[in-house]
Amino acid sequence: MDAARGRSENIDPADQWVLNPNTGEYELRLSTSAPQSPRSPVPGPRGRSAPRPDGTTARPTQAPGRRVPPPRRRGTEPEEPPGRRGRRPGRSKTKRAMLWTGGSMAFVLVAVATGGYLYLKHLEGNVDTIDIGDAGASNFRKDEAFDILILGTDKRTGAGNEGYGDKGSTGHADTTILLHVAKDRSNATALSIPRDLIVDIPDCETTLEDGSEETIPGLQGVRFNRSLGESGRDPGCSMRTVEEFSGIEVDHFMMADFNAVKTLTTAVDGVDICLERAVDDEDSKLNLPAGESTVEGEEALAFLRTRKSFGNSGDLDRIKAQQQFLGSLMRKMSSGDTLTSPTKLLKLAEAATEALTVDEAIGSVGTLKDIALELKKVPPKNITFATVPVKDNPAEAVKATVVLNEATAPQVFDMIKNDVSFTEVKAEKKKEAAAVAARLKGPKADASEVRVRILNGGAASGSAQAQLAWLQTQAGVDKSENAGNAGVEQPKTTLEYAPDQADQARRLADIMGLSGSALKPGESELNAQGLPTMTLILGKDFKGAGVPLDSSSVKTPDVEKSTADKVQCSG
Fold first, then answer.
1. Confidence at 103, pLDDT banded by 50, 70, 90
2. Quick check: 29 pLDDT over 60?
3. I need a surface site. Which of 3, 177, 222, 365 has the fewest CB within 10 A?
4. Which of 127, 109, 129, 124 is nearest to 44 (CA)?
C-alpha cells in the first residue's frame, strides 16, 4: 500500500498521527521518505477534517498552492428519491478483481464504525464501485429494512492467491450470502445461497468499462454461480437472479478479495474456530487438531475453503463451517479487545477499503458508516445464519446439484420479504414496553360480549373462516364474523380496537394468546348489524385455528440454523 493510503511499507497507520504543538491538535503526517501517490497529494478527502485516533477531527491541512474548500454542511447534498435506480449513461468503470470473502466484509463495518470509521475518509479512494443500474436501490435508507448480497468469486486474482480457486474461472459466484437487516434493527438473517442451486438467470443489463450498455441473455436451469462473471455478468445479474427465484428485492451488494480474509483475521489477532475431529485436508492445506484453535491469515482462508473434510464433502457442509466462522469473527470484532485498540481498528479499516467493492449507491464513506452503525444495533443473539432450503436434483442420477425445497423455501423467503425474525426478539424499547404491557392489564369482558371482524392478512388460505368457527364453537365469541381478505399482507397478527373496547380486546387477547404489541388502540368498524366492532387481522405468524400466538416470534420452517452468539464446532 502506498503512503497516500495511510502507511508506507513498514509504518503502522496508528503511528502517523502527530500532535501539532502550534494548534494542539492531531494531524495525519505521512512519512517524508515514502513515495507519494500522484493521485492523492493531500492526505484524506479534499476539504474534510482529518480524523484523530481518539475519533475527533483535526483541521484539514492545506497543501502549498491549493485552496481547501470550506466544509459542506450536513444535508446540503441532494438525495435521490427512494426506489430502484436508473443507469447513469456514459460513465466508465474500473472493474478491479472482486473476489471471495464468505461474507466477512458486511460485518467488519460494525467494528470500524464503533471507533475507526472516520479513518475511512482517508481511504475512500480505495473503495471500488460498480454501476448496476436499476438492479438495486437508488440510495441507502436508515429508516427501512435492507438486503445486501455478499458475493465472493472463485477467480484467482491477487498477490499470493495464485494457488486458490479455479484456474480457468472467469469469476463465478462461489460464495453468496443474502444479509437481511430488520427495519427495527432487532434482528438480522444471513441466508447462504448454494453455488450449485439450479436457477433461471434472467436477462441482465450491464454497463461496460467504456460506458456503453449491453444486455446479456438469460439462462434456464443452470447453477446459481453462473450469475456472476460468465459472459460479463456483473453483481447486478446475481441480484436479479436472487429476486427471480425468491421474490426478494436485493438493495445492494458487497464483494471483496481473498486478501480480505487474511488481513481481517490478522488484524483481530485471529478467529477462534472449533473442529469435531482433526482435519488434514490435502486440497485446502488445512491441518488442525480436534477441538478449539485460533486461525488467521492463510490458515483462516484454508479453513473457509475446506470442503472435503467436512460432513459429506459437499458445498452445503462447507457453508455450515463458513457460517460458524463468521459468527466467531463477529464476536471477535465486537469484543472490547478489538474495539478499544486504535491500531486494530485502523488495520480493519485499511483491510476493508482495500478489499471492498460495492454498488454506487453505497460507495461513499458516509453511507458505509451509516450501514455499519445500523448493523451494530443488531444483537448477535438475534443474527441468524441459515441456508436456502434445498434438496437433491431429482433429474440427476449422480447427485451434483440441488433445487429449491418447495415445502420450506417459500416460507423462508416470505419471512425475509415481510421482515419476520427467525429468532424470538423483543422489538419494543424499554420505555415503550411498559405501555405495551399495560394494554393487557385491566378488566376483561365476557367472551359473549366480544364483537370482532376477522380478516386474512397473510395467513394460509381459509384461516379467517377457520378461526371464526373456532371462536364461535370453542371460545364462546358468538358476535364474530368473517370479513374476507385484508388489503395487504402483514407479518404479525394484530387486533385494532376503540378505547371503549379495551375490555373486549383484553378478553380476545387472553383467548388467542396475543401479546400487548399485537393490540393496536385505534378505531372500531361497524359490523353487519351496524354495531362497533374490533378488527382482527391474521398475519403470517398465525399458526392455525385455536393455536395460541406469541407475537414475539414466528413459527419458523424446519430449517437448520444458528445464531452469531453461539459457539459451534465444524465436522
1. very low
2. no
3. 222
4. 124
Is the pLDDT at 486 greater than 80? The verdict is yes
Q: How does pLDDT run across 174-194, given as a tens digit for each residue?
A: 889 999 999 989 899 999 999
| Torsion of Cα atoms, 378 then 380 then 382 then 384, to 10° | 110
- Measured from the Cβ of residue 469, the count of other Cβ atoms closer than 10 Å reads 14
Q: Is 179 in contact with 376 (CB distance < 8 Å)?
A: no
Q: Could you give the CA distance from residue 432 to residue 442 in angstroms, rounded to a whole number?
A: 18
C-alpha to C-alpha distances, 421 to 247, 253, 381, 383, 490, nearest whole angstrom: 18, 22, 12, 9, 13
Tens digit of each residue's pLDDT (9 = 90 or more) over 235-272: 999 999 999 999 999 999 998 766 677 877 887 788 89
* Alpha-carbon span 478 to 496, nearest angstrom: 18
Helix (H) or strand (E) holding 452: strand 451-456
Query: With contact defined as beta carbons under 8 Å apart, do 147 and 136 qualify?
Result: no
Q: Which three cell numbers stand for residue 91?
A: 460513465
pLDDT at 487 over 50: yes
Q: Compute the radius of gyration of the chain from its Cα atoms.
A: 27
Longest dimension (CA), the chain: 88
Q: 10: buried, middle or exposed (CB in 10 Å: 19+, 13-18, 0-12)?
A: exposed
Quickly list DSSP for 278-309. -EE-TTT--EE-SEEEEE-THHHHHHHH--TT
Owner of C-alpha cell 462473471 = 229
Residue type, 228: L
Cα within 13 Å of Cα(373), Cβ side: 14
Distance CA 382, CA 420 (A): 12
The three cell numbers of residue 153 are 468469486
Grid cell listed for 145: 429494512
Q: For residues 495 and 505, what is the distance between their CA atoms, to the nearest angstrom?
A: 7
The mean pLDDT of 13-41, rounded to a whole number, is 42
- In angstroms, the CA 230 to CA 347 distance is 33
Tell me the residue ranges of DSSP E strands in 108-264. Answer: 128-130, 146-153, 173-181, 188-192, 198-201, 204-207, 213-216, 219-223, 252-255
Summary mean pLDDT of the chain: 75
SS3 content of the chain, % helix, strand, coil (to 5): 30, 20, 50
